[in-house]
Give the backbone structure.
Amino acid sequence: MRGIERVRGRVGEINDLLCAVNLLTWDARTQMPPGAAAARGKQLATLSKVARERLLSRELLGALQEARAEDVTPAEADELDQLTGALELLERLPDGLIEALAEHRSVAQAAWERARADADMSAFAPALERMLELQQRMAQAIGYDDHPYDALVGLYEPGMTAARLQELFGALRGGILPLLEGIRASGVVADRRFLQRHYPEGAQRDAALHFAKLIGYDLGRGRLDVSAHPFEISFTRDDVRITTRFRRDFLPMSLFGTLHEAGHALYEQGVDPAYVRTALTTDVPGLYAVAGTSYGTHESQSRLWENLVGRSRPFWRAHFGALRSFFPEQLADVDAEGFYRAVNHVEPSLIRVEADEVTYNLHIMLRVEIEMALLDGSLSVRELPAAWNDAVGATLGLDVPDDAQGCLQDIHWSTGLFGSFPTYTIGNVMSAQWLEAARAQDPAIAAALERGETEPLRAWLQENVYRHGRRFAPDALLERATGRGLTPEPYLAYLDGKYGELYRS
Ligand code: ZN
């Protein structure tokens, strides 16, 4: 057997284990009775450990060495390069660091939950300090040229650095802050009261499924369930599941939440079938079965479908009738334009997950800058709440009443996800870059979108993004499809065009 086939056999088994981890995770978040939590934790830890041992086994290393000397296809060469790079990275991590992180994660998360419930940062501070120390060790072990943040953000977004983010953020603030100022000054306020009428859960579920199918989500290889925090998860391209949550008195939560997760799912369902069970559908260093090439690229798809398509005027001109058929009484006195305006309301708020498109990235930027300062030691955990509150005041113009609505609102720091926040903003920026390129390259896509038809756009994304899985790094994927690396201009032009028109006084 050739080396490449032996590599494929081994990686296939690792991918099977990781898909089983995903399935147990899905179950834990949707179906599992609470009493099973401890046993499930052990099952997940065991499977992850076996996957890690298989990854670092002599058999795989030997097969990999052999395969690298063989004649392989360009896709196979990329597959081998990724595997080699991932193994080199894992080898740099000192013994015990992964275990120490896993162990501290549950401690820190419990402390964060208590602290948030009591709005008391001091209850989380010691656990956060310890987490920070572990993250700093991780950054040292991975290595970086310029800033410790480079090592961590690269785990989620290969090629991204603190310096590139600072430049991107400067450009974004330069566009967003004046836009927000204009919106505030306009005095325009959309009527949103109808969004809070009584929307029965069954009809919300039917509507969510209707719109997920409409944008191309294949229910023959997927399903929709309910969970407290919505997510998408896959066990190969042939089983890609999404979840949502329903609030009876607020329609947008399930509707746009489902479009968001369905956007993630289109990416996973669209990967080339030849890549299934290979390194090109496996996040090898992160030990996670996923086809999307980076967190930011994944998020670019969820946000493209949720916001750039799902909150667009032509989409609702075409499909508001269908939405109203699910809620004939609740939406009897609303039209497409009224709905469009209501779901694009802009208002600075304290909570990131409730933020609108214009202010959302301001929330992310302040978190990322705080993360960078915590990591390089220029900010201490003790100084964190004040730094947070100052940044919220300076960019959003709001006072933070307590830490639960401030620096304790997100789970990320307690689970050790330092470096992942930027991927939300990268996803937003990238989403507009894809859409701009698709429309420019094929006028039929732009014309179809004007009629509310999304299939030509999905086909373009399938060809240029989805089918490649993890084969290309984000910048390379962008270059191939749009002719340039990540750039903020299309996103700023999108925000300006849309919200400038909506909020013209
Ligand atoms: Zn998402």
Remarks:
- Residues 3-138 form one domain.
- Residues 3-30 form the longest helix (28 residues).
- The mean pLDDT is 96.
- The pocket of zinc ion is lined by residues 260, 264, 299, 302 (CB under 6 Å).
